[in-house]
Amino acid sequence: MIRIEKAGRVIAAVLAAGAVTALAGAPAQAATTTAAWTADVSTVDYDDVNVTGAGGTLTLADAAWHRTAQVFAGSEGTFITTEHALGAPANRVSAQLSADTPKGTAVDVEVRGRTGVNDWTEWTPAGTAFKTAVSSVQARISLHSDTDGLRPAVRSLGLSADRVPQVNALAATAALTYKVYATREGLVGEKTANGHIIASRDHFVALPSGRGLAPKGTGDYSVRVCKTDNSRCEYAPVWDVGPWNTKDDYWNPASVRAEYKDLPQGQPEAYAAYHNGYNGGKDDLGYKVGNPAGIDLGDGVFYDGLAMSDNGNVNVTYLWTGSGPTGVVSTAGDPMNVRATASTTAAVKGLAANYAKVNIECYVEGDTVTGKFGTGNIWDRIGPDNYVSDTYLQTGSDSPVAPHC
Question: Which of 159, 236, 347, 383 has the highest CB neighbour count under 10 A?
């Protein structure tokens, strides 16, 4: 991301008193520009959180609001641009931001690109090459203030896309899975980082980094979270940031991880802080870490999906880190049962939440089911001994999108 904040923290040129501009991702080698455009930062809609674009300037709507899980003074908000189709594939998006950032405020810009019908790259700092070429792009502007009443203001955002040689591009692999400590989020009636109002027995999770935060009403970034014996699992979207940290994408390798690069891949900073006194036993906001949690579970995931009665270890698969065909769970709102086989009478192995984006390993024929997308006997295997009817998955195709099991 590019960040504009206090003088000396980023490369910035003063345009006028209190105003700065920054260019992220200036090419270090020859690259062909495939697109350049100016994003609309004044039209605020359903997936934006605590921002207003009145007068054509993007700023915080409430200068004292912040995520439910945080207790600091000040405010924060996020704005996601409309999806912009590229004229040709690109693997890097740079940003030029014009913003007013009074002392104690900051503005970040991250980008992501679409790689398939349902698939996006992780949110990535502007100017950093994606692992693969993308066909369309979105940017996310994050506004921060550490003082109640103080607001940064964004006047314009220019974006450009180009294609550069891949450096250490990762080969296609299965999605990453790590065992981490899970806590129950609760907080019914409060607002998550993506603007979702938490309902009773809700089905979502929180991870301690915005890189895997799905926009409101989507499951672009989803996880499979299972008991450690894999007896029950739930597939759920990532709709909040936490617990503890806000920039700890611990599932990523050190070359990608935003902070705490000296920790082992898959180990949350909270674990190291709690057990080993890492970072003085504190999180990235300076609070003493009270447990080693690397994921928060909505009440529905905790109680209904996994049948947990207390906080504890779980196996988490970060589904967007894998490759292959995917489908988005589409129900009337309630989660759907995940079965042990392709039968409506088979043992229930857990739940798949509405909006969750699942990886489809293969398909089999089974019981005929009538779902959101018609009637059929195709069932998709979305995990080990985890099957759901294809009639509830939006895959972009009327035919199976994965090979036969």
Answer: 236
- Asked whether residue 29 carries a pLDDT value surpassing 80, the answer given is no
CB within 8 A of 286, min separation 6: which ones? Answer: none
Tell me the percentage of the chain whose pLDDT exceeds 70.
88
Phi, psi torsion values for 124, nearest 5 degrees: -130, 140
Question: Residue 190 and residue 67: Cα distance in Å, rounded?
Answer: 9
Whole-angstrom distance, CA of residue 271 vs CA of residue 23: 36
CA-to-CA dists, residue 316 to 42, 127, 225, 227, 310, angstroms: 37, 29, 4, 9, 17
Dihedral Cα 245, 247, 252, 253, nearest 10 deg: -100
Bridge partners of 106, per DSSP, are 144
Contact assessment for residue 248 and residue 278, using Cβ atoms and an 8 Å cutoff: no
Strand partners of residue 60: 51
Q: Could you tell me the pTM of the whole model? A: 0.88
Rounded Cα distance, 313 and 46, in Å: 34
Q: 236-266 pLDDT, tens per residue? A: 999 999 999 999 999 999 999 999 999 999 9
User: Whats the size of the chain, residue-wise?
Assistant: 405
Could you tell me the two tokens for 59? 């700023």
Contact 337, 270 (CB under 8 A): no
Report CA torsion sign: 326, 199, 340, 331. negative
Q: Give the CATH fold of the 326-394 domain.
A: SH3 type barrels. (2.30.30)
Domain coordinates in residue numbering, the chain:
2-163, 176-321, 326-394
List, as own/partner pairs, every contact residues 54-61 make where C-beta atoms lie below 8 angstroms and the sequence separation is at least 24, other chains included.
Answer: 56/155, 57/153, 57/154, 57/155, 58/141, 58/143, 58/153, 58/154, 58/155, 59/143, 59/151, 59/152, 59/153, 59/154, 60/143, 60/145, 60/151, 60/152
Task: Give the tens place of pLDDT for each residue, 189-237.
Answer: 999 999 999 999 999 999 999 999 999 999 999 999 999 999 999 999 9
Cα torsion angle, 241, 246, 252, 258, sign:
positive
Supply the mean pLDDT for the chain. 89
The CATH number corresponding to 2-163 among 2.40.50, 2.60.120, 3.80.10, 1.10.730 equals 2.60.120
